[in-house]
Amino acid sequence: MDTPSDAIYADFTSPLALLASQRLDRLGAAGLPAPDWRAVSFRPTMPEIGIPLDSRAVANRQEELDRLRDHLLPGEVLPEQAPRLLPHPGSATAVYAEAYLAGVADEVRGLLLRAYWMEGQDIGQPEVLRRLVPPAFAKGRRTFDPIQDWGYAVSPQRSPVTTGAYRLVHRWQQEWLALGTPVGLTLDGPSGSPTGVAALSSLDALAAVTS
């Protein structure tokens, strides 16, 4: 797959990723070049079942969401309530890498983010994703029959099922770590590597073209 010079490194459990994804969708709908989305895991060593958030942690996530509302562009949305679970990142990252190779990365990216942020689904569970992604993979290139036919794009161990996707996940994580920007959203390009809200702001001008 040919990639633009800019790249976004994002963890699906970051609310900044939800807004950045909407900016990318807007650019794509307008036929404008967009950074290449590369999924990373901010907390790769968390328990496989994820982390149920206590009331204080939920309140902190809610404050993070509410602060981001000032950065919304017309037509963009954030959930009213923060999810009460922090999923293990491995499953979603694995599925996205398989989708990247199958040519349906944009659709699967949106499915993952909506499922977690807007619907509260546990995207850390392989069983949840196997129900979610089959229609998208049915439209993609055939990379592995179980993926194409049944959406079997993540193993029970929350890893990719093809060697190519496994290598992608490893490469993206190493690229992101090499930037030295350990936050849930980084925009890397010729002019620098802004993170967090600064990375989101760097997309504003491009996304605003289609407002």
Structure write-up:
This protein is mainly α and 211 residues long. It contains 9 helices and 5 strands; from the N terminus they run βαββαβααααααβα. The protein has helices spanning 15-29, 55-68, 90-102, 105-118, 126-132, 134-137, 145-150, 163-179, 196-208, and strands at 7-10, 36-39, 51-52, 85-86, 185-188. The strands form 2 sheets. A 3-stranded mixed β-sheet has the order 2-1-5, with helices on both faces. Strands 3-4 form a two-stranded antiparallel sheet. Helix 1 (15-29) links the parallel strand 1 (7-10) and strand 2 (36-39). Helix 1 (15-29) packs parallel to helix 9 (196-208) and helix 3 runs antiparallel to helix 4. The chain is globular, with a radius of gyration of 16 Å.
Helix content range: 40-55%
Order of helices and strands: EHEEHEHHHHHHEH
The helix tally amounts to 9
- Assembly state (oligomeric): single chain
Principal-axis shape: globular
Mean pLDDT: 92
Determine Rg (CA atoms, Å).
Answer: 16 Å
Strands ordered across the widest β-sheet: 2-1-5
Regions with pLDDT < 50 over 5+ consecutive residues? Answer: none
The major sheet is characterized as:
3 strands, mixed
Structural class: mainly alpha
